What we know:
CATH superfamily: K homology (KH) domain
CATH class: Alpha Beta
Radius of gyration: 19 Å
Order of helices and strands: HEEHHEH
Shape: elongated
Helix content: 40-55%
CATH architecture: 2-Layer Sandwich
Number of domains: 1
Strand content: 15-25%
Number of strands: 3
Oligomer: single chain
Largest sheet: 3 strands, mixed
Amino acid sequence: MPREFSRGQRIADQIQRELSEIIRLEIKDPRVLLVTITDVEVSQDNAHAKVFFTVLGEPAQQEAAARALEHASGFMRSILAKRIKLRTVPQLHFHYDVSIERGMRLSRLIDEAVGESAGKKEQ
């Protein structure tokens, strides 16, 4: 049985797709070259959207990308208003997505634990 999506989830998914394209094609700032939009959460009244992103690189590059995205949020919102037919286009709030880093760290710990237990079995 197909999963039913709420209107808010459909809006969030469309905003995620559009922002990914806007960042890739419209934003000329080099600080956002390697940014990936991972998720969007829209408030019930569509007034605000939390936009989660990741970026390859060091913490300094992550901070620079966050500043660049916040700086360009008004520009991106105006493009969204032209592309998405909504009464209110949400204010964009960018948040660095730590879940991917956390997942990689857990995967590395699991691999190390498995490697250690395999080494003990060989002895």
